[in-house]
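## retry 2 of 3
previous attempt timed out at serialization; input unchanged, resubmitting
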Amino acid sequence: MRILVVEDEPTLRAQLADALRAAGYAVDCADNGVDARHLGETEPYDAVVLDLGLPRIDGVTVLKSWRATGRAMPVLVLTARDSWHEKVAGIDAGADDYLTKPFHMEELLARLRALLRRAGGHSSADLRCGPLVLDTRSGRVTVDGRLLPLTGHEYRVLAYLVHHCDQVVSRSDLIEHIYEQDFDRDSNTVEVFIARLRKKLPPGTIETVRGLGYRLSEPR
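## retry succeeded, writing output
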């Protein structure tokens, strides 16, 4: 899952990016509204963490622009303490949730997980596909209760497929959602990760749909 962090304060931006990467997300960052608006309009993010007090273009204007162009990714806005008018403006502009500074990183991660679950039509923190269970709180993946050892990129591929269980996911979608913007993307590596995952999962869990992509489903 790929996240855009928009925050102009360098220390907080770095802390957010580090925490999200540690939680298994691919992360891009922007420190002003102009770059944020461009990235949000041109890159396929699964969610955005958006500070409203941005230089060049404010966060509310950026968010309104995204929504006006049909960008529907979940957006968690960050607001200053006691700035109730910012919260109202952010929600009216199309925000899905808000968090007041200062905040605990664990709360931000929990709110982000909830937004991603709802966007994918999931109600539980445990995402299930047959015997496979992904605990979005801990990042643990089990099959029939057995812990599945995964590398970071294997986890990103599998997490995206689990969020879209029983749906066909194209190779290009996987590439766009598991890599950060400046990463050297190679479609062949996706095939390598799929091959590795197939060796660790029950036979038939990841199906190749010829000409379209991959589908994660309960083994038949």
